[in-house]
From TrEMBL, chain B:
Catalytic activity: carbamoyl phosphate + L-aspartate = N-carbamoyl-L-aspartate + phosphate + H(+)
Transmembrane stretches, start-end: none
Pathway as given in its UniProt record: Pyrimidine metabolism; UMP biosynthesis via de novo pathway; (S)-dihydroorotate from bicarbonate: step 2/3
GO cellular component: cytosol
Protein name: Aspartate carbamoyltransferase
Organism: Acidisoma cellulosilyticum
Source taxonomy: Bacteria, Pseudomonadati, Pseudomonadota, Alphaproteobacteria, Acetobacterales
Amino acid sequence: MNGMVTNTLRDTVIAGARVIDPASGHDAVADVLIRNGLIADIGLGQGRPDGADYVDAMDAVLSPGLFDMRVELGEPGREDRETIKSVCRAAAAGGITSLCALPDSAPATDDPALVRALIARGEDTGSLSILPYGAVTRGCLGEQMAEMALMKEAGAVAFTDGARAIGPTRLMRLVLSYTKGFGGIVVQHPEDPSLAEGGAATQGELATRLGLPAIPAVAETIQVARDIALARNTGGRLHFAHISTGDALALIRAAKAEGLAVTCDTAPPYFDLNEIAIGNFRTYAKLSPPLRTEADREAVVAALADGTIDAVASDHQPRDADDKRLPFALASAGGTGIATLLPITLAQFHSGKIGLMRAIELMTAGPARVLGLSLGHIAKGAVADLCLFNPDRAWKIEAGKLPGKAQNTPFDGRAVEGRVLGTWKAGKRVFG
Amino acid sequence: MRHLLAIEGLSPVVIGDLLNLAESYALLNRSGKTQRDRLRGRTLINLFFEDSTRTRTSFELAGKRLGADVINMSVSTSSVKKGETLLDTASTLNAMQCDLLVVRHDQSGAPNLLAQKVEAAVINAGDGMHEHPTQALLDALTIRRHRGKLEGLTVAICGDVAHSRVARSNIHLLNAMGCTVRVVGPTTLMPNSIAELGVTVFHDMPAGLEGVDVVMMLRLQKERMTRNLLPSSREYFRFFGLDAQKLAFAKPDALVMHPGPMNRGVEIDSAIADDPTHSVISEQVEMGVAVRMAVLDILSRPPAMPQGGRH
């Protein structure tokens, strides 16, 4: 990533913002001086170096650039849905400066050369770091183990088969055991494949009324319980993606209390929406895992507050109209999330469920800690990846008007508060 | 009313009006008279993505008796797999200027999707496991003709409730009209949270049929056995098939109904299906035509409040 740090940039002073850095606990009004792509100084009364760009940031919050740990890029393989270029635009507008790319693309990221290529594609953008996940199995097909240690050497941050759960128990046990040997992290899509097969909505009254094939919440509980047992058995490092149920969170809470190396994230739909959003066969709210009951949503909110959940990731899954304008069970699951990650997470701050520091932590230092990365903090000498936003500015999420190519947001029509004013990547202003 | 997509959400008044109109069509049909000017010049398209000779024929006859031009389109699944989507079909139908569109589809919600895109009035003729509104209406009409009313009756819906659109539409309709509704079947064929729809759940036929006025049997598909929801049709018949022994728990004059086509010896004993003192199965077919005439009639009327323009 050193390609992004150049000496040709002018100095920038972001003055008067409330600077919040969850990694250090810093929360105070300060001026931030950016020089040569790095944060050169933080404090009041910086003055205004000659020729510096000056940003008056009164009433705004300056946080580390957001780090989104779960994104399906669309590239390679589904450029009709989304490209790295379009994701880049959406990310900058959403305050995101780094993201993790899922490996179940076409071809899958199951080879060190592909890991290097994706990292390079990110560097080429000049505005976004792409941190690839490597596939656990070749082609993400769940059969033969991929060259995970070589991919880690090439820069893969962790290993997952993306939207496909690592199903067979023996395979999962071996994967946790093998990755432990070289310090790899396994990211699981926690859904028992045989219980989830063919399902379109969470099991319950609504799925019964609509006559939709259902996925029981216990599909998630079972996978989480089994994998925790395997993590205990192997000592492997395990992370669960997009947790959506209270029962799974209770298991993860207990595993953490026991001292196991288990972490988890969730995505905004699971704390902002419930199954009712699928209403009259609304396919834009068809997600994987499916939107759950109100009780599950409340459990996810509680786990954001009590620390059981380590990170919020957008779980961005670009789809086009052809993927979605189908009968519900045939429509492709997935929603966009990059452009709405910040405001939907801030909704939990506005409703008093979590503090502003915690909200930002879940999108910066939280995911960085999960993956053992040093990004996502504001400190003297750190790379100047920054997000400046007004936490109160209201706007309305509208499909068709979001930055980026894919418009399949499950939040269409939702009024939110929190608007990004500026995004800096390695000192360069890439949005606002 | 612009479309008929589901029973859920219809008021008892609307259901009552439909049944009254259907009743008058039933009398007209028996008298041998027709009303061919009622839908003259209108085009009705039967769009069937799933085979169903019985329902298609019933709609065809209903349309023809009212004078509509009826066209049957059977869309095989293979042409759907070729890439033609439902919405492609919708634009084709708009170009053909169809007035009434009857849709049967194996996917829940498919008629709702079509209704968003076509100009025609859409009638759901069965979508996946969701609803089959005209079946529930014809069942209600059949019951009403025998009992004079619906309110206060106890109805047991028996069998594969989980996969049944007929069961769902009947539950909504019978509840709306003041019936007490029971569902009876093995646990693996009972959908989750079905009690929330306002029914009492039984897994034992004698208990479920105790004192009921009406026994509605559902069709059991062979596929349920291959997917391990049941071990065999023999075991199913022993515990959930309707025979004289189990029927004896219902009221002595209980009606026996079946939406057809029947699997004799699987969900119903032939001796019961063909017993004229209980079985009203062929009358259901007759009422099917009358109900569909009423639905086509109502949906082709101009809207009651025209200020919204042409819609």
